[in-house]
Design goal:
The chain is α/β, with parallel strands linked by helices. The chain folds into 2 domains: 3-205, DHBP synthase (Alpha-Beta Complex), CATH 3.90.870; 229-318, Rossmann fold. It contains 10 helices and 15 strands. The protein has helices at 8-16, 38-48, 75-84, 101-104, 118-126, 147-154, 193-200, 234-243, 274-290, 307-318, and strands at 3-5, 21-23, 30-34, 57-59, 89-94, 109-113, 131-132, 160-162, 174-179, 182-187, 204-205, 229-231, 248-252, 265-267, 295-298. An 11-stranded mixed beta sheet has the order 1-8-2-3-7-4-6-5-9-10-11, sandwiched between helices. Strands 12-15-13-14 form a 4-stranded parallel beta sheet, sandwiched between helices. α1 packs across α5. It is globular, with a radius of gyration of 19 Å. The chain starts with a strand and ends in a 5-residue tail after the last helix. The protein binds threonylcarbamoyladenylate and magnesium ion.
């Protein structure tokens, strides 16, 4: 297993040697390597078993550090970055040649963000290169929101996990870019759309393409548990499947089911608080995936605020894999 700790110097030393380190962010844990070192970047793809057509996000310490990597920063996107960085927002910008092709999968835009976690911000401030970091999970599986999640799946493959506790937001960053003069959302995430629209006006949401996605976070099946994952009306499904003799696991928004053992149910937010539900979503999916349940039943949350991103992840968890 990897060494788990809070030693920024040690994390920085591994990264300077071209090794990978798992880093905490406010959204999910990242699997980080020196973005300018092609060998380190290729080992990110290998470690995650990630196809090389799926580009990586550059993580930098501040807005000022973006300059060497992008050729343009459109006004509206800059306004969003100024308002929400450090935070759960990733911006797609025209890239400079300084960014290795492998990071962008050969695309002409690079994804950039300033993550909001004190340990990772302190780490980035010590480094003289940006970090390329996808979520620290095997490709297609649920993103990790605790150091232990990373250790369980990638611990034998990396030397160090920087432990920043449980991620405060719990959903991956919202990805934005421009097409013509229009702001486009490519992935719903931890930054609520209404906050974006309050600053730049109405946006287009393009987060549901299925074939040949421009961002593989758009693949229909993603963030998926290994057990069958079924979405529907829990009040009907739970008794029906118990009747059929199934050992059901239940991921509910706020309802506790007295008929089920506690280790086979997970309530996202008893008080129906969407940020709390988002923060706990991936942990709940993992716990149920590891439980004795035969299958997991889940329900949509209200389609407002962060509820849209939560429902997006639930749909992808329920989709049949196509790869
Ligand atoms: O919250 C997050 O964004 C986390 C933390 C670690 O920062 N990272 C994350 O990375 O979720 P990843 O690799 O799991 O998802 C990044 C998404 C991918 O779907 C990728 O295709 C898209 O961003 N992306 C990255 N660069 C892109 C580019 N140049 N053009 C289009 N999409 C891009
Ligand atoms: Mg990911």
């Amino acid at each position: 297993m990897a060494e788990v700790g809070v030693d920024i110097e040690r994390a920085a030393a591994f990264l300077r040697q071209g090794q990978l380190v798992a880093i905490p962010t406010e959204t999910v844990y990242g699997l980080a390597g020196n973005a300018l070192d092609v060998k380190a970047v290729s080992s990110i793809f290998e470690t995650k078993n990630r196809p090389s057509f799926d580009p990586l996000i550059l993580h930098v310490a501040s807005l000022e550090q973006v300059g060497p990597f992008v050729s343009e920063f459109p006004e509206k996107l800059k306004c969003l970055a100024e308002a929400f960085w450090p935070g759960p927002l990733t911006v797609l910008l025209p890239r400079k040649a300084s960014v290795p092709d492998l990071v962008t999968s050969g695309l002409d835009r690079v994804a950039v963000r300033v993550p909001n976690h004190p340990l990772t911000l302190a780490l980035l401030a010590q480094l003289d290169f940006p970090l390329a970091a996808p979520s620290a999970n095997p490709f297609g599986y649920i993103s990790p929101t605790q150091a232990g999640h990373v250790d369980a799946q990638l611990g034998t493959q990396i030397p160090y996990i920087l432990d920043g506790g449980a991620c405060a937001v719990g959903l991956e960053s919202t990805i934005v870019g421009m097409e013509e003069e229009q702001v486009v959302i490519y992935r719903l995430g931890g930054l609520d759309l209404s906050k974006i629209e309050a600053l730049v006006g109405q946006v287009i949401v393009q987060a549901h393409s299925s074939s040949n996605p421009s961002a593989p976070g758009q693949l229909a099946s993603h963030y998926a548990p290994r057990k069958p994952f079924v979405l529907g009306n829990l009040q009907e499904l739970v008794p029906q499947l118990i009747q059929q003799g199934k050992e059901v696991g239940v991921l509910s928004f706020s309802t506790h089911f007295p008929s089920l053992p506690t280790d086979r149910q997970f309530v996202l937010s008893p008080s129906q608080d969407l940020p709390e539900a988002a923060q706990r979503l991936f942990m709940g999916m993992r716990l149920l995936d590891e439980s004795a349940a035969d299958l997991i039943l889940a329900e949509f949350v209200p389609e407002i605020g962060l509820g849209r991103a939560i429902n997006d992840r639930l749909k992808r968890a329920a989709a049949q894999p196509t790869h």
